[in-house]
Amino acid sequence: xxxxxxxxxxxxxxxxxxxxxxxxxxxxxxxxxxxxxxxxxxxxxxxxxxxxxxxxxxxxxxxxxxxxxxxxxxxxxxxxxxxxxxxxxxxxxxxxxxxxxxx
Length: 103
Known about the structure:
Blueprint: E1 2-11, E2 18-27, E3 32-38, H1 55-69, H2 77-90
Antiparallel strand pairs: 1-2, 2-3
């Protein structure tokens, strides 16, 4: 699965230019699911300056937030997103069928 950050939103709280929301997409090369979510509150002890963050760090923050929001089940929130992408890819492709009243 390929995770990609497509947009971030910031606030100047608790520290200047704190990433608080991320839009992301997950693809397996065939199907894609895209969404956004609020990240977990920033930890001042682990704060990374805006110009020093990497996409991999933000992806990790997204997965942490997804997993924290997951209150039931045996797999994490991030794994559920990946499973949805796989299900979407493996689902039979519906075909356009002429409307019966137009035949």
